[in-house]
Amino acid sequence: MTYIAKPKFHHPGLPKNDLGYTHRDYEGKISTLCAGCGHDSITASIIEACYELSIEPHRVAKISGIGCSSKTPDYFLGNSHGFNSVHGRMPSVLTGANLANRDLIYLGVSGDGDSASIGFGQFAHSIRRGVNMTYIVENNGVYGLTKGQFSATADRGSKSKKGVMNTDNAIDLVAIALQLGASFVARSFSGDKTQLVPLIAAAIRHKGASFIDVISPCIAFNNHAGSTKSFDYVREHNDAVNYLDVITGRDPITVDYAPGSVQVVEQHDGTRLALRKIDADYDAHDRLAAMTFLQKHAAKGQVVTGLLYVDPDAEDMHAHLDTVETPLNTLEAKELCPGSSALEKINASLR
After folding, report:
1. Average of per-residue pLDDT across 101-108
2. CA distances, 79 to each of 59, 74, 197 (Å)
3. Theoretical Cys-Cys bridge with 115: which of 110, 156, 200, 329, CB 3.0 to 4.6 Å?
4. What are phi and psi of 253, to 5 degrees?
5. How confident is residue 88, by pLDDT bands cut at 50, 70 and 90?
6. Whole-model pTM above 0.70?
7. How far is the C-alpha of 116 from the C-alpha of 177, rounded, in Å?
8. Between these two residues, 58 and 149, which has the higher pLDDT value?
C-alpha cells in the first residue's frame, strides 16, 4: 500500500549529485499503481530531473488532486512538502501556497480527469495568472479509478477497451495552455525518458507558468488497438519537434557556425562534441506558430512532442502583483499593518 516506505538501505557506491544525494534521496513510497503504468515512468523522470538539478527536497512543494495521477506525488521526493487536495482543486491550492511562500519550488501533478473536467476552470486560471510552477498532467484519456470511461482528453473516434467509440471532441490542454498565456508549454510521452527528463528540468528552472502534458497510457483500460493514448499508437504517431538538454551552474559555451557545417566543441568535462547545424523549421518562441503547428499535425493524427513554446523573458504572478521579495508567510504584524497614516495615503490615492 502507499504507506509502505522503501527500505532506507542502499548500496554505498551509488552515484551522488552536487549535494551528495543519491537517486534514493529523491524517491518516495512504494507505488501501488498497476505494473507497467506510464505514471510510474513519469515519477522516475521527475526523480531524475530533481537529482540532476541537485534540488534540496525540502525546497519542493508537490500538490495534487484526485485520481491515479494524483497518487504519484507519494512516490517521489518523500522528504518534500506535499498536499493532496480535492478533485480538480490542485491549481487553487498551489496558487495560495505560492502566494504565501514564493521561495519554494512548486510541482503540480494532475490528470486529464482532474484538470480537463472538474478542474478545467482551476487549470485555466492558474495558467493565465502566471503562477510560478511546473504543472504536469499525466494524460491517459480515461478515468482509471472508475473503470475506464472516456475522459475529456480522449480523441474523437478512439475506442474504449469494450469497443465503444468516443463521439465527443477532445480538449487539448496544450492548445489551451498556449492560448491562456503559459510561458513554457511542452508535451511528451511517458515512455520517452530521454525527452521528458530535460523538459521537466527546464520547466522547474523556468520562472512562470510551466505546463507539460505527458501522454501516459493506462495499461488496464486504454492500451489496446483503437486507442489513441496507447503505447503503440503514440510511438507510431509521435512527431518530436526537438530534443533538449539542460546545463546548469557553469559558464555557457557559445559557438557560431554556418548552417550545414560541422563544429567541434569541447565540453566542460573535457569531452568533444561534434555539432551539425540544420535549417530548423520550428521556432519555440512563436506562440501563434506553435498553436497552428499543433492543429496542423493533430489533423493528421500525429502527437506532437517536445518543447512547443517558451518565453525566456516571462514574469510570474508575483511580478504581476508587485509583491515583496520576502515570502508573505514570514512577514511580521508591523509590516502587514503599517498604521493609520499609510492607510490614509492609500485611501487618498483612490479618491
Report:
1. 97
2. 9, 10, 20
3. 110
4. -100, 125
5. very high
6. yes
7. 11
8. 58
Average pLDDT over residues 164-188: 95
pLDDT per residue as tens digits for the range 214-248: 999 898 888 888 888 888 888 888 878 776 777 66
Return the pLDDT at 252. Answer: 57
C-alpha cell at 37: 503504468
- How deeply is 344 buried, as exposed, middle or buried, from its count of CB atoms within 10 A (0-12, 13-18, 19+)? exposed
| CA separation for the pair 305, 111 (Å, rounded) | 18
Cell matching residue 101: 511562500
Give the single-character DSSP code of 9.
Answer: -
- pLDDT of res. 247: 61
DSSP-assigned letter for residue 179 = H
- Whether the Cβ atoms of residue 68 and residue 296 lie closer than 8 Å to each other: no
Provide, for the chain, the percentages of residues in helix, strand and coil under a 3-state DSSP scheme, each rounded to the nearest 5.
35, 20, 45
Report the candidate in 64, 84, 72, 4 with the shortest Cα–Cα distance to residue 44: 72
Residue-wise DSSP of 167-187: -SPPP-HHHHHHHHT-SEEEE
How confident is residue 201, by pLDDT bands cut at 50, 70 and 90?
very high
Q: Is residue 171 a contact partner of residue 139, using CB atoms and an 8 Å limit?
A: no
Helix axes of 193-205 and 38-52: crossing angle, nearest 10 degrees: 50
- Are 268 and 282 in contact, with CB atoms under 8 Å apart? no
* CA-closest candidate to residue 74, choices 4, 22, 144, 136: 4
Amino acid at 122: Q
Amino acid at 15: P
Q: Rounded distance, CA 182 to CA 133, Å?
A: 10
Angle formed by the axes of helices 120-128 and 90-100, nearest 10°: 30
Task: Return the C-alpha cell found at 76.
Answer: 517521489
C-alpha cell at 295: 492543429
Cβ 100 vs Cβ 145: under 8 Å: no
Q: How far is CA 151 from CA 114, 158, 181, 221, 316, in A?
A: 9, 11, 24, 12, 30
Count Cβ atoms below 10 Å from residue 249 Cβ, excluding itself. 8
